[in-house]
Amino acid sequence: MDEHADGGRAAVGPETDGGPPLVGREAELPRVLRALDMPSPDPVLLLLGEPGTGKSALLERAVRRAPAAGVRVLRAEGSEPEKGLPFAALHQLLRPSAAEWDGLELAGERREVLRGVLAARPVAADGGVMAAGVAVLDLLSALGGRCPLLVVVDDAQWCDRASLEVLSFVARRLAGEPVTMLVAARPGDALPVLGPRATALTLGPLDAAAAGRLLDLRPDRPTGRLRARILAQAEGNPLALTELAGSATTDAAGPVGPLPLAAHLERIHAAPLGAMPAAARRALLRLAALEPADSPALAAVLADAGDAAWAAAERAGLVRRTDRGPRFGHPLLRSAVYHAAPFDARREAHRALAGLLGEEPDRRAWHLAAATALPDAAVSAELERTVGPARRRGGHAAAAEALHRAAELAPDRADGARLLVAAAEEAVLTGDLDRVEELAAAVRARTDDPSLLADIAALAGRLAALTVRHTVVFARLADAAEELCLVRPDTALDLLADAVVVRFYCGRDVQRRRIEDVLRRLPEDPSRDWLRTWVRAVCDPFADRAELLGVLPWMAAEARRRPDRLAALGVMAWLLDETPLAVRAFDEAFDRWGSRGPLPDGLGGAATWSYVDQGRWERARQACARSAALAAATGLDHAVSCAAAVDAMVLAHQGDTAAARARAAEALALVDPLESRSVTVYARRALGAADLAEGDFEAAYDRLRTVFTAEGAPVHYHASYPALAELAAAAARSGRRAGAAVVVERCARDLGDDASPRLRALVSRARGLLAGAEDAAEAHFRAALADPELEHWPFELARTRLDFAEWLRRRRRIAEARAPLGEALETFRRLGARPWAERARAEARAAGLGVMDREPDALARLSPQQQEIVRLAARGLTNREIGEKLFLSPRTVGSHLYRSFPKLGITARSQLRDLVEGAATSPGGRP
User: Fold this and answer.
1) Contacts by 906-910 with C-beta closer than 8 Å and gap 24+?
2) CA pair distance 387, 839, nearest whole angstrom
C-alpha cells in the first residue's frame, strides 16, 4: 500500500466548480480527480489525515467535478454516535438509488438483502455481511453499467463495522467495474478497507509557505505576533489555521498560554452558540443528537425550530442547507454543539428524539440509553431486545455494543456480567480482538463467578488464536487451561485446543512440552477423548502416528454424527498425511457451512493444503480466495497470510512465477518469522518452488535451506518436511549435495518409524538425487515409487518419476525411462504444471522418444479465474450464478467471458461445453 502522497506536480485546472482554492494540496488534487477517469488507476483511494487536513475538501472537489465528467456520485458520511448501528453508512449510500432497483438487473434475493440493509426487512441470518457484500457489489455494478459511478465515504473511522466490512468486500472486487471508491479516514484507525491492494494518499501538515498563503486569503488576515502564534500553534493544520484566524484576537496572542487548539478546537466551534436564540440552540442540539437513521424524526425537529432559528444558525456558519435538510458545516461543529451542552440538555434532546421514534424500537432504545446516566433495568432490557434484529442483519458489532451498554445500565451485577459475556460472544464474530479483551476485562472487574470467568477466557482465546501475536496468546491460553484443568476440565480442554492451534502456527518446541504437561493434568473422561486426541495430533502428529491412525476411523465416525467437527477431522487427517480423508472431510465441511463465514475451527489453511496435495489446485485457489476475503474483513492477518502462501505455491507450480513471488511476499509481510514459523516456511517453500520452475537452482537451494536450521532440523515440525526432496533437487543441480545430505539424514532420523508413506517417499527421492553410488540411487528411486498410496500426491509422484526417468536416460536405459517419463508428462499436463510439462517434453526429446510438441490446451491460455468461469459457464450456469460462487459481480463475469472467447477461438457461449469436454478428454487435458 502506498503510504505517500504522489510526488508529481500535475497542473491544477481552473476552479470551474466554484469551490475555494485548495492551498497546499496542489499535488494531491489531481490524484483525487483521477478517480473520475474510468477505469481509474486507483479504483480504491484512501485519503488519510488528521481532522482538518483537507480530506473532506478534496472529496467535495471530486464530487463537484463528477457531473461534468459524466460520473454519478453515491456518498456517505460516518458519524461517531452511529458506529453501533449496523449498515447505517450503507443506508446513506444506497437509499438515493432505492427507487431504481426494480428497473435494474438484480436477482430477487439481492433486492431483499438490499432492502434488509435499509431496515425494510432483516438480512437473512445465513448470509449476514457476506450476503450484503454480494448484493451491494451487484447493485453498484448494475448502476455503473448505466453511468460510471463514484462512491464517496467521508469520516470512515466513524462508520459502523458492518458497512465497512461490506465496502471492504466490494473494494476488493472492483477490477473491471466502472466504479471508483474514495474513502477518507483518520490515520491510525484500523479499517477493513485498508487492504494491501488499496492505494493510500496521506495528507500531512502544510509547509510554512502554504500555511502563510492560507492565512493571506482571509479578508482580515492576521499580522504580527498574532500571525506568528497562529502559525506556530496550528502546526500546518488547515482547519486549525482557518478557525484560529477567524476567532483569535490580538489580546489572545499574549505571552501566557497557548491559543485554543486540538482538544479545545470544539470550544471554538461552539462559541457562536451563545448568540443564538434558545429555540435555535435547542434545534441544533437535537440535530447534533440526530442520526441519519433517525430520519423519521427529522421533519419534527425541523418543524419544531421554525425557519427563523435555522436561518440564524446558517448566518452564524453553523449549518448549511442541503437537499436533505440542514447539515452542520463541519463534523467538528456537530461535536462542539453536542458536547458544549450540559448533560441535562443532552438528556432532554435524546428523550425528545426517543419519543419521536416510537416506530423504530432500535433507535428509540439507543436514545433512551444516551439519556440515562444511572443503572436502569427497563432501558437495559430494551437495549437487550435490539440484539436479535442487529444480529439478523449481520451486525455483530452493533449487537455487541447494545449488549455492552445494556450491561452498563443493568442494576444487578450478575446480570451485567452475563450481558458482558454475551457481548463478547458477538464481538468474537467481528474478529475485533481488542474489543473482546476489553469486554473480558470488564467481566473480570464485575464478577468472580468461575463459570462466567471461564467462558470469557475461552471466548478471548478462540479469537486470539487466529491473530499474529502467537507467543503472548499461547502463554495466556496455556495458563488459563492449566488453572481450570481440575475445576472446569471441559473449558480447559477448549482453551488447550485453541493453544495447540497457536502451537502449530508458531512451531516452538517449548509450546509442545507445555501442552503435553497440561494434557497430563487434565482428568480422563471418555466424553473428552475426541478433542483430547485432536490436541495430541495437532501438537505432534509424528510422535504417535501409528496410535493416532488407529483411532482415526472412530474419530471420523464421531465427526459424521457431529458435523461441527468435520473441519477438525480434516485438519487431523491432513497432519497425518491421510489426504483422501482430509479432502472428503473438508469438502463436506465447506458444503455444510456454506457462506456463513470462515470454518469454525482453527487451521483453516489445512483445507487448502489438502487440495494442493491432491492436485486440486483450482479448488485450492478458490478456497484461498474465500478464506482470505473473510479473514481480511475481520482483520485476521494470519489467516490472510496463510491463504497467500498457499496461493503462491500453486502459482509457482503452474509457472506464474512473478505472481507467486508477489503472493509469497504478501504472506511474509504480514507475519513475524519467529512468531509464525508455519507461514514463513510455506512462503519460503513457494519462493523456492518458483526458483525451481525457472531453473535457478542456486537460488532455490539458498531459499529452501532456510526452512531448516543450521544443524539440519526442521524450522517447523510439520511444514518443513515436504521441502526435503525439493532441497535435494536444487542441491543436485547446483553442486551442493553434501549440505543437503546433512539435512535429509537429520530429518530422516528425527522422523524414524513414525514417518508417513508420503514422507518416506520424499526422503527416498531426496536420497536418490543425492546418492553417489549407482546402485544406491536406483534403490532409493524405486523405494520412492513403490507405495501405491503415493497416487494421492500426484505432483510429488510425477516429480519423482521425472527425476528417475532422467537418471535412467543418463545411463542410456532409455527403454526403462519411457514409462515413468510418459506418466510424469501426463500428470504435469493434467495439473497445468507448465514448467514441469516442458521439462518432461525436453527430456523425452533428448531420449529420442516420439512425444508430439502439440499446442497446449486452449484453456491454459486463460488465467486460473477465467478458466474457472469458463468451466462453470460450460455447465450452463448464468453470469449471476457464477458470480455467486466466485464472489464476483455478473458484469465482471461477463467481462472475463468476453475477453476469453477470442483466446479460445470461439464466438458463442453455446460452444463452451464442447470445448471444455474436449479439453478434458484429450491427452494432457484436465479432468
Assistant:
1) 909/873
2) 60
- What are the grid coordinates assigned to 688, written together? 523456492
186 neighbors 157 (Cβ within 8 angstroms): yes
Cβ 755 vs Cβ 722: under 8 Å: no
Nine-digit cell string for 173: 472486487
CA 359 to CA 103: how far, in whole Å? 29
Provide the pLDDT for residue 843.
87
Pairing assessment for the beta strands 44-48 and 179-185 based on DSSP bridges: parallel
Asked if residue 204 lies in contact with residue 923, where contact means CB atoms within 8 angstroms, the answer is: no
What are the contacts of 32-35 at 24+ separation with CB within 8 A? 32/58, 32/59, 32/61, 32/62, 32/182, 32/201, 33/61, 33/62, 33/65, 35/62, 35/150, 35/180, 35/182
Cα R_g (the chain), whole angstroms: 31
Can you give the pLDDT at residue 120? 39
Instruction: Report the distance separating Cα 883 and Cα 142, nearest Å.
Output: 13
| Cell reading at 718 | 510439520
Sign of CA dihedral 729, 734, 735, 740: negative
Where would I find the H helices in 811-848?
814-831, 834-846
β-sheet bridge partners, residue 185: 48
CA 802 to chain centre: 39
Which of 497, 505, 455 has its CA nearest to residue 478? Answer: 497
Cell numbers given for 330 = 463541519
The count of other CB atoms within 10 Å of the CB of residue 303 is 10
Q: Is the dihedral of CA 685, 691, 696, 699 positive or negative?
A: negative
> CB-hemisphere CA count at 13 Å for 42?
22
**Chain centroid to CA 672:** 18
- Residues 124-151 have pLDDT tens digits of 434 567 788 888 988 998 898 889 999 9
Cell 480442554, residue?
Answer: 493
DSSP at 46: E
* Contact by Cβ (8 Å): 161, 90: no
Q: What are phi and psi of 198, to 5 degrees?
A: -80, 155
Q: What average pLDDT score do residues 275-293 get?
A: 80
C-alpha distances in angstroms, 494 versus 37, 488, 713? 53, 10, 31
- Cβ contact 239:51 at 8 Å: yes
Residue 150 grid coordinates: 463514484
Q: Are strands 44-48 and 199-202 parallel, antiparallel or unpaired?
A: parallel
Q: pLDDT class for 297, splitting at 50, 70, 90?
A: low
pLDDT, tens digit, for every residue of 490-541? 989 988 998 999 999 999 999 999 999 999 999 999 999 999 999 999 999 9
User: Grid coordinates standing for 714?
Assistant: 526442521
Distance CA 131, CA 170 (A): 11
Closest CA to 784 of 814, 840, 793, 730: 793
Kind and range of the H or E run holding 150? strand 149-154
Residue pLDDT, tens place only, 873-899: 888 888 887 877 666 677 778 878 877
User: Global pTM?
Assistant: 0.60
pLDDT at site 622: 82
Q: Is 316 helix (H, G, I), strand (E, B) or coil?
A: coil
Rounded distance between C-alpha atoms, residue 921 and residue 350, angstroms: 70
Q: Which long-range contacts (CB under 8 A, 24 or more apart) does 21-27 make?
A: 21/217, 22/54, 22/57, 22/58, 22/61, 23/206, 23/210, 23/213, 23/214, 23/217, 23/238, 24/54, 24/206, 24/207, 24/210, 24/211, 24/213, 24/214, 24/238, 25/54, 25/57, 25/58, 25/203
Phi, then psi, of 562 in degrees rounded to 5: -125, 80
Residue 185 has pLDDT above 60, yes or no: yes
> β-strands 149-154, 72-77: how paired?
parallel
- Amino acid residing at 816: E
